[in-house]
Amino acid sequence: xxxxxxxxxxxxxxxxxxxxxxxxxxxxxxxxxxxxxxxxxxxxxxxxxxxxxxxxxxxxxxxxxxxxxxxxxxxxxxxxxxxxxxxxxxxxxxxxxxxxxxxxxxxxxxxxxxxxxxxxxxxxxxxxxxxxxxxxxxxxxxxxxxxxxxxxxxxxxxxxxxxxxxxxxxxxxxxxxxxxxxxxxxxxx
Length: 189
Prior knowledge:
This protein has helices at 9-28, 31-54, 66-84, 90-112, 121-139, 142-158, 163-188. The protein has 189 residues and is mainly α.
């Protein structure tokens, strides 16, 4: 390597610092997903609860069709963010694949939920703890770690209540574990 292409120690440090800040920014931009999916899942669960409790709607579980819109929005947003991102770290990849795996698992439960009388909320709520807690660890963001713990506890409690109440409690858990930390994460960007 010629001497004219070598960076000074200060320049090297500036490049490293810039890359670290960019990687941190990539991860913190994920507040969008917590807010989008938190609102979507909270509304869907609350909608099902209201329909089960106060109406005679034949299939209130169709409220979860709104997740298809959120999935499309997530895909478009993710593609645009990837085009803007100049740095991608191993943590970014781990983060992405943890959530994609979780999404695939939820999709399977959603497709076959009728086979178990739609008694999937305690399972999905418990499973939400894993990517939420891991996200908190990767981001070094305690509200998400706390959210993961709350999802574990909520999942256990939701197993113990009737199906109508399961939807109400899941909605509350999502507000506490996704929406509130999502806003906190957004403020820290």
